[in-house]
Amino acid sequence: MKGPLFYSKILLFGEYGIIKDSKGLSIPYNFFKGALKRDKNDSEMARNSNKSLKGFAAYLKNLEQEEENLVSFDLEALETDIANGMYFDSSIPQGYGVGSSGALVAAIYDRYANDKITILENLTREKLLLLKKIFGKMESFFHGKSSGLDPLNSYLSLPILINSQDNIESTSIPSQNTEGKGAVFLLDSGITGETAPMVQIFMEKMKQEGFRNMVKDQFVKHTDACVEDFLSGNVKSLFGNLKQLSHVVFDHFKPMIPSKFHQLWQQGIETNDYYLKLCGSGGGGYILGFTQDLEKAKTALKGHKLEVVYNF
């Protein structure tokens, strides 16, 4: 038994901002993927995954009782498959901000949910919001609190535009220019980040009026502008807004940036060779980079591996 593949995702814009109703743009990233498997595999990865699935199944049983009108699962089939050694075989790195738990949630919903909403239906806004709510409740098992966006992206394998918390839609992004010099890339920080502590720091900071005003007047403003520029293919304006956004994050979200990247972050803003931003909640994992000249960025970031996600 091998299930369909579910891909990782990248939140291009909107980290932290979407908690406060900024726009956001999330795209599937097919480089990493995962699938449910039930072959004989005695590796440590398969054993750990199977153990985690046991806990998840118990959590879903509870969820079904608490939210009886929201979602129900074929728990018998799920528990039988887990007892027979089912695991989630995934190349998606954990704690890297590319949606490892999201892909697992999407895979479990796809196989075991009763009356599931399928991607072949006419996906109205109501259906998208319902899916997002279901996925948020399911993914809370892994994160404590989840928006449900990562699993939604993985499940649909489509770019998702977040207009506000209760207004989301699938969208299309300008096709890549494979000959272009510009690129969006991932930079590996070499350390794992954990979502919950980072969100905790953000929520604490939000108690200060000055920080709240900065989020509203600068962070959300530049994030929204970046989303609009990216979707309309306005590269010149996009890089102007990216510079501002990178600056705001550097000034106000320092704890989320691994310390060894502080200097590289600043260097990008000063030289305009590239701009860095958080990928997910930060604290480790990947850092997102944007450049109008990939070769220049590679030279400036020598010694770091750049993983290209999108070409301008």
UniProtKB/TrEMBL annotation:
Coiled coil: none annotated. Residues 86-150 form the GHMP kinase N-terminal domain. GO terms for molecular function: ATP binding; kinase activity. Keywords: ATP-binding, Kinase, Nucleotide-binding, Transferase. This is Mevalonate kinase. It comes from Flagellimonas zhangzhouensis.
